[in-house]
Amino acid sequence: MKKRTDKLLGLNLVFGIFLILSLNLVYAEKLDIEVGNNYVPGEEVVFKIVLYDEDNKQIEGEIDYVIQDYYTEVVKQGVVVSGKEISFKLPEDAVKGPWEISASYKGINAPRTLFNVGELEKVGIELEGDTLIVTNIGNAPIYDKKILIYIGSEDQTASISLEKGQSKRIRLTAPDGNYDVRVIEGGEDAIEFKGVGLTGNVISLERVLGDNFWQKYPLISLFLMAVGLLAIFVIGLRFYDKKSK
Question: What pTM value is reported for the model?
Fold first, then answer.
């Protein structure tokens, strides 16, 4: 009889513990993503994802998230703790348009959340020997601006028109010697190159060498040249036939 009573007491204790745990169990009800609206390439996008219970109180949990660009290409994905801020730096050439952050937790999906990436006109500037290399590294389809180039104390202006990813080369000339070269683009701080060895008769931007069509598409260029030569050959052959008759 005592064993039976002890057994019943044990079962009641287990049931009581189970009941207490069940009452204290918290169920996740929804996900919310907090992010700003407008950003530009190269800027930090700071956002956080919060998991809430049925009483709209924040609870803990590890949440899966995905960041996609305008063309729905996955740019970043990972796992984050509920309520923790995430910092994501946009690439300099980030696609212009609406980007999306999605999140999920055990079958619960966050509402579609968007932020906008604006247009950035920006060039990268490098120096190789006496030649500046200017490249459109922003997300603008066309970069069309003037840049100011100081060779020593003398300034020169170069008009730059570049498609996205395209580069142009600007050769610097000056009477033989070493010069400090500064380049000012838009409202950006000057880019400086110290003690650049230059040669020439006068301080100037001697020439601009761009990636023209023939350089950019060599295979197409060869094909067009072959077609042109073939056309000349056919015309010449017909002319010869007519003349021989």
Answer: 0.65
Does any domain span residue 85? yes
H or E element, residue 151:
strand 142-151
138 Cβ partners below 8 Å, 6+ apart? 41, 92, 93, 119, 120, 121, 122, 123, 164
The domain spanning residue 146 has which CATH number?
2.60.40
Residue 196 in tokens? 């650049």
Same domain for 106 and 171, yes or no, is no
CA pair distance 245, 237, nearest whole angstrom: 13
Domain, as residue range, for 191: 123-211
Reported as a single tens digit per residue, the pLDDT across 62-102 is 999 999 998 888 999 999 999 999 999 999 899 999 999 99
CA of residue 8 relative to chain centroid, distance: 67
Contact between 43 and 26 under an 8 Å Cβ cutoff? The reply is no
5-27 tens-digit pLDDT: 555 455 455 444 443 434 344 56
- 41 and 74, same structural domain? yes
What's 26's DSSP letter? -
